[in-house]
Amino acid sequence: MYKSIKSSCFFPSFLYKVLIFAFAFISFSPIIASAAQVALEWDENDEEDLAGYRVFCREENQIYDYDHPVWEGSENSCIISRDVKSYFVVRAFNTSNMESGNSNEVFFQPYDNDQPADNPTQIINDNGDAGTSYTGTWRVSRGANPYGERSFYSTEINATYTFESELEGSYEVSLWWTYWSSRCTSVPVEIYDGETLLDTVEVNQRANAGGWNPLGTYVFSGTASVVIISEGGCTTSADAVRFLSALPNDPPENCTDADFDGYYAQSGCGTEVDCNDSDPGINPGATESCDDNVDNDCDHLIDCSDPYCDCENPFDVTLHKPADYLVVTNLQAGDEYYLDRDYYLDWIPSELDTGTEEWIKTKNRDDNNSSTAFLEFTISQPATVYVAYDSRADSPPYWLRNSFSSTSLDIEVEEGVYGSLTLNIFRRVFPAGTVTLGGNLASGAYGARSNYIVIVKPF
Question: Taking the model in full, what pTM does it have?
Fold first, then answer.
């Protein structure tokens, strides 16, 4: 069904919009001239209704513009002029103009005129690319500084996420993950050459997040696979894998990459200058964090001064009562949701897993409160307020069932020795101003044994 014209860098086929295309970049050849040229080639497809291919390009810290390819044609190769650091993916399309998903992403770094063109071959496989697969449940993470647009996480024991690439030779293998406070500290990572297990490396995902972490250098004879295994009981991140061939020549003596993030600390070494060579999470390829007073992406702009950050109109939730409750951001599976119990979130629906939500952590000891004005807070912008209520209840209180809308959404939690519990979600849109909620067992409520929790999501 598919025809391969080369034997390197192929990835498994994948399904997208009822089309199946098997292709990937198979060569990456920068040609030094007055303006750098990049020669790209990919696996040919033999579908009967294949119309051609489109190549898309992005620069550092940008996203792909899928409405404007940099090249389109029926050949399976092209040459593109670029004089800045660039990333490429290719998509196939058919006679109905339906596109496949992305190939694997490749990277081009233009060289300084006084440097030899012997930069290593680099293949980066991001989560969701061709060549990735998984077992168990993996969800989109809100961890900071993902490679590309997102990372995934799992709390399921022995769930696996696999990155696979067809290549031969000696390659340094590096892993990129995102930070979260509940990340596992001894994640097993298996490296395979075909079916042969070469090594198992344990990584601490609470350290060195947001950058490349070398696992070792290995010799591959056809298919290289990196398998991340979820420990369970904590969150395991799956983001991206980099295969980096050895440089034909050692870099000049004055070029150092002490934190192994792929960027040198000096100019004239073939990469943009790393402004902090002791932290792999800080380099020209990182994403700016908007609230840490650090120049994460080495562009000399910090936090809100960086165009990446939109700090003009921040959303704010101000809690008035109870005074001992707490507003927090970015709760994920594995995090505790009460202030007075060590119960934790097990599953959150995608609608409440976008990274924009504010969570009000309540106390379970207030599960029998019957006040009609128990919890009060102010929102600075219009927002949707979600209340997650005990599914064991025979009926929720009048204030909830009469003024909120029931949904098909729910949150799964773990209540320690009491086991798992489902919280049913109700929602209501509020304008900017004060929001008042009644107690868990206010008039009309019966049968709830755990207190509700509140999530606020701005428009």
Answer: 0.39
